[in-house]
Amino acid sequence: MPTTRPILHLLPSEPFGGLQSIVIDLAQAQQAAGKAVKILLLGDSPRVVARCRAAGIEPIVLAGGKLARMVALRRRLSEFRDAIVHSHCEPIWAVPILAARPSSWVVHLHVYANRAARYWSGHAIRRHFARRFIAITHSIGESFSDNNLVPTRRLGMVYNGLDFANFPEPATTRNDPFTVAFVGRAVREKGLFDFIEVADLLRDVPGLRFVIAGEGGGLSDARRLITQKGLDDRITVLGFVEDMQDVWRSSDLLLMLSELEPFGLVTIEAIASGVAVLGYDTQSGGSEVMANLPGCDMVKPFDIAALAQGVLKAVADKDLRRVVQFGRVIAMRRFSMTRMEEEVAAEYELAGLKTTNAVVRNSPESIAELS
């Protein structure tokens, strides 16, 4: 009788954000599908550990300095000899250790290919030893394949998924005042300061407010700029928000202003919450996702005037909520976590890595850890 072949997800613990949420949700969906799953954190983070435990997964945590974590990673991998080793944004120091598992190593490509010289050794090792590559958008995959960093024949694409059960049916009425949100890592490359410029340009429009939800290195500068421009009464800065439901419930429009967004899970979260999305058309993974969903609109990148006009267009659109409701239906079909789990399983199959084995040779301790 076949037994379940374990899946071991390798995940950096910092910076905390969408990457950790996606991998933990995927692991939870794999468990729900009857697979044995473990998460190995390549560093300690109370927030990620808590997030894993909330999903019913007790993570393995590598603590200490880099050398100690390298030794611990090698030892842990030896304990899971039959596991599918599925890595996510692993640091360069972990790559040679993972290369010792070429028959079962799957690399998930969450970010664009970085062609800087210091990354070349990692690219070369992955290209030679990894069994399969999974890109989160076509745009991400092309950034690797076009630069000959991954073999096209071993490259697949699976969109990120969302557990829509965590997003109740949204209200069909708009808020008063109409609220425009920035949600995500509060840094310049995510468009934080463009968001403030839009609020400044529309400061005299009645019935319009702005909110920033997220933390990051640009937040203190953003607070100062808001005060300098006299926008404290128009822009609410929340910082990190643990439970986003109230933010989504009180928002009408999300601005997605990243320079080069790999995917933009926050776009799916917004549509799932009944919130329209306005973003930059940067020909990125984020634009690829927005192009799939009613309720999303795009303007010329970095054109603040065009962005402001897009906001006013959304304010004037009496059918906006109805269009977003249709977008939610599409998103639930195309970007569900169930679909992501099924497509990842298909990628394992394409790599010859079935999640059931006739015989499992792991040590009894490893099997106990995965049960």
In words, what does this structure look like?
The chain is α/β, with parallel strands linked by helices. It folds into two domains: 3-161 and 336-370, Glycogen Phosphorylase B (Rossmann fold, 3-Layer(aba) Sandwich), CATH 3.40.50.2000; 164-333, Rossmann fold, CATH 3.40.50. It contains 15 helices and 15 strands. The protein has a seven-stranded parallel beta sheet. It has a six-stranded parallel beta sheet with strand order 11-10-9-12-13-14, sandwiched between helices. The longest helix is centred in the N-terminal third of the chain and has 15 residues, at 18-32. It is globular. The model is unreliable at 358-371 (pLDDT under 50).
Tell me the CATH architecture of the largest domain: 3-Layer(aba) Sandwich
Question: Helix count?
Answer: 15
Number of strands: 15
Mean pLDDT: 92
Indicate how many domains the architecture comprises: 2
The third-level CATH topology of the largest domain is Rossmann fold
Oligomer: single chain
Note the topology.
Elements: E1 3-4, E2 7-11, H1 18-32, E3 37-41, H2 46-54, E4 60-61, H3 66-79, E5 84-88, H4 95-98, E6 105-109, H5 120-129, E7 132-135, H6 138-145, E8 155-157, E9 178-183, H7 192-201, E10 208-213, H8 219-228, E11 235-239, H9 245-249, E12 253-256, H10 265-272, E13 276-280, H11 285-290, E14 296-299, H12 304-316, H13 320-334, H14 337-350, E15 356-357, H15 364-370
Parallel strand pairs: 2-3, 2-5, 3-4, 5-6, 6-7, 7-8, 9-10, 9-12, 10-11, 12-13, 13-14
Antiparallel strand pairs: 1-15
